[in-house]
Specification:
Its EC number is 6.1.1.21. This is Histidine--tRNA ligase. It is found in: Cytoplasm. The chain is about 40% helix and about 20% strand. By secondary structure, it is an alpha+beta fold. The chain is elongated. It binds one RNA strand through helix 3, strand 10, helix 15, strand 14 and helix 16.
Length: about 425
RNA sequence: UCCGGGUUGGGGUAGUGGUAUCCUUCAGCCUUGUGGUGGCUGAGACGUGGGUUCAAUUCCCGCACCCGGACCCA
């Protein structure tokens, strides 16, 4: 017996069926918006992350030298890869680019709830549009993915913020404020003591009076967001609040405004965000834990050697989504489902095989005996795979040119002429022949 | 990397310094044709390495893995 590697999981069919449903739900939404699926490598040059990712990510890299002496790493995130792909074909791609991808990523860190060393996420990105409509479309896709999973406004909330508003307000206090550091402090606001939070702001270059005033300004409601420009007298802030308002207006038209809450204290840690940022929170859980986040990152492509290209996207992790769905009671039962089991008794394989084929042509999941088992054992197996209907193709039935249809939930069964089965029915059951 | 709690047949459990309980599961049979619901028979476990001891699944230490937390964040 071998153990699996720490933080790497096996998924057995019951759970996989539920995960498949969730993945398909997410991808269907993206496909309906015209996001095109891309495929990406599991390995990239280690250098790409050392150059372009934060130090934390590099520390968590699974990296090694391959047999050709190349330093390679298992991809810890998709963004550098899509940036690389985009830059490589930038001239020939017609903008805006809308890409989607679901796949595993790897990070060497300590597993805990909703976090593993191998984890799956669905990345959704738009490249080449700086328009608020693009931000709003990303938000719409995010909301629709969640609602298609069966979640409602009771279960989640998307908090929207804007990096440029934070930066502009901070700068209005003085040119020497360390904006990234202050934003990191804001990002931690909910987790630390209020005094420590204020200390961190002071550390970033504000004085205590400014820190208080700044924090007060962050509490502002969506309706009053535009007053920030007058409060600070900053044109940068005005441009940023106008942009946020435009995104919210577009989100209104897209039918997802009700799921969005303006919350300037939502900052997100990553340095590369530039405009709108957002974070999805579990509103049912006692701990309001971040489920996933996203936002605009207009400078990143240029950093990869491309023409300056605006970009916006998000990437929900499947493990945390699963937790959210389970808490909300919308995660499907983790059990197998089977439409038909075609049971053979004696040498009835030719007929059983024909029936199984006919049913499969109608798109059903159909199993039949491949282990030469007894009647009772086959019935037990059919029960074990949750077969809804058993078609008994026995020697006795065939002597009368019949088969027996049995519904497994109530045990009712009926003989049906062989020539009439499956007949014209898409999904023939006991009911169809009961009269 | 750090902290806390775990690890007993495939799954779930009881228990003990002298190798282990019950439920379920699985296989077969009763029953060449009825599962979820009977009866019988059988299979199957103390994570790993070391220490203490006459004897360790039990006590001690290390490690691995699992669950959760810190850090960090997707």
């Amino acid at each position: 017996m071998y153990d699996s590697v720490k933080g790497f999981r096996d998924f057995y069919p019951e759970e996989m069926q539920a995960r498949r449903w969730a993945m398909d739900t997410l991808e269907d939404v993206a496909q309906r918006y015209g996001f095109r699926e891309i495929g990406t490598p599991a390995l990239e040059p280690t250098e790409m992350y050392v150059d372009k990712s934060g130090e934390e990510i590099v520390e968590e890299l699974y990296s090694f030298e391959d047999k050709g002496g190349r330093e390679v790493a298992l991809t810890p995130e998709l963004t550098p890869t899509v940036a690389r792909m985009f830059v490589a074909k930038q001239q020939e791609l017609s903008k805006p680019i809308k890409w989607v991808s679901t796949r595993p990523f790897w990070r060497y860190e300590e597993p805990q709830q909703g976090r593993f060393r191998e984890f799956y996420q669905t990345n959704v990105d738009i490249f080449g549009s700086a328009e608020p409509t693009a931000d709003a479309e990303i938000l719409a896709v995010a909301v629709e993915m969640l609602t298609d999973l069966g979640l409602t406004g009771e279960d989640f909330e998307i908090r929207v913020s804007h990096r440029d508003i934070l930066a502009g307000v901070l700068e209005s206090f003085g040119a020497d404020v360390d904006v990234p550091e202050a934003i990191r402090a804001v990002d931690k606001r909910a987790k630390v003591d209020h005094d420590d939070y204020l200390d961190a702001l002071v550390e970033a270059g504000l004085n205590y009076g400014q820190a208080d005033k700044f924090d007060e300004m962050l509490q502002i409601d969506a309706e009053e967001i535009e007053t920030l420009a007058d409060l600070t007298g900053s044109e940068d802030v005005r441009a940023a609040t106008d942009n946020l308002q435009a995104v919210l207006d577009a989100a209104e038209d897209f039918g997802v405004r009700d799921h969005l809450t303006v919350s300037l204290t939502t900052a997100r840690g990553l340095d590369y965000y530039t405009g709108v940022v957002f974070e999805c929170f579990d509103s049912t859980g006692e701990v309001s834990r971040s489920v996933f986040g996203g936002g605009r990152y207009d400078d990143l492509i240029e950093g990869f050697g491309g023409q300056p290209t605006p970009a916006v996207g998000f990437a929900p992790g499947h493990a945390t989504l699963q937790l959210l769905c389970q808490r909300a009671g919308v995660w499907p039962a983790e059990e197998l489902s089977t439409d038909y089991y075609v049971l053979q008794v004696g040498d009835t394989r030719p007929t059983a095989a024909r029936i199984a084929r006919d049913l499969r042509e109608r798109g059903h999941v159909v199993e039949s005996d491949v282990a030469d088992r007894s009647f009772g054992a086959q019935m037990g197996y059919a029960d074990g795979i949750n077969a809804e209907t058993v078609v008994i193709v026995g020697e006795q039935d065939l002597e009368n040119d019949e088969v027996t249809l049995k519904e497994m939930d109530d045990g009712e069964q009926i003989s049906v002429p062989l020539s009439a089965f499956p007949g014209d029915y898409d999904r023939p059951t006991f009911e169809d022949f009961a009269e």
